[in-house]
Amino acid sequence: QVHLAEGGGGSVQAGGSLRLSCTASGYTSGNRCMAWFRQAPGKEREAVASLYTGIDSKYYGDSVKGRFTISQDSVKNTVYLQMNSLKPEDSAKYYCAAALGRGCVGVWFDVSRYNAWGQGTQVTVSS
């Protein structure tokens, strides 16, 4: 099974930017749906963005569309989340997830579809 490790979290002022990375190790062959989720204390895990590695298709949650961009570097086995125009409500722990051998269409936001999860990286945005 693929192992995921996130990085790039931190504390920023509102309006600032961060770039998260998710590096995969172990079994990395084959296409998969990669995604970023976030979870704040007392709230459900929320789908942020996803990417299907096979055709580089991308999907975004309504709350981040236009501000966040997901991308991949297949050579480095890494998925990124560029976060711009950050808001205090973006504060959460961000998790990388992978659905091995699966596409994203119609189900990318479903937590139960993912087989592997990273440990998360904290993002804190202050006003």
Note the main attributes of this structure:
127 residues; mainly beta; 7-stranded mixed β-sheet; 4-stranded antiparallel β-sheet; 11 strands; 0% helix; globular
In a few lines, what is going on in this structure?
This protein has no helices and eleven strands.
Overview of the molecule:
The structure is a single chain. The chain is mainly β and 127 residues long. 0% of the residues lie in helices and 51% in strands. The protein is built from no helices and 11 strands. The protein has strands at residues 3-7, 10-13, 18-25, 32-39, 46-52, 57-60, 68-73, 78-83, 92-100, 116-117, 121-126. The strands form 2 sheets. Strands 2, 4, 5, 6, 9, 10 and 11 form a 7-stranded mixed beta sheet that branches. It has a 4-stranded antiparallel beta sheet with strand order 1-3-8-7, with no helix packed on it. The N and C termini lie far apart (40 Å). The model has no long low-confidence stretch (mean pLDDT 94).
Write the layout of secondary structure elements.
Blueprint: E1 3-7, E2 10-13, E3 18-25, E4 32-39, E5 46-52, E6 57-60, E7 68-73, E8 78-83, E9 92-100, E10 116-117, E11 121-126
Parallel strand pairs: 2-11
Antiparallel strand pairs: 1-3, 3-8, 4-5, 4-9, 5-6, 7-8, 9-10, 9-11
